[in-house]
Amino acid sequence: MNSQLNDEILKEIKLTNRLLAQILIMDKESQKEKILTLASCGISPTDIAEVLGIKVGSVTGATSRARKVETQKEKPKANDVQRT
Q1: What is the pTM of this model?
Q2: 25, 64, 65, 58: which is closest to 41 by C-alpha?
Q3: What sign does the dihedral 70-76-77-78 (CA atoms) show?
Q4: The domain containing residue 58 runs over which residues?
């Protein structure tokens, strides 16, 4: 009985999380924006893929590309370095 109750509670929590995720992304237009918004909230790629109905690889690819762009923005270019 206890296991059945735990399973039911877990099911309800997962449903609530999916609904909250949908609310978070309802104003986002692109899939990339949706992925990055959910990822910034600490939601796992697997859960993001489930919420959006896409493959996990699409999620990991989008987050990886976003990190790469951020890293490139932070690195100074060779001709941007000031010489003293």
Answers
A1: 0.74
A2: 25
A3: negative
A4: 2-75
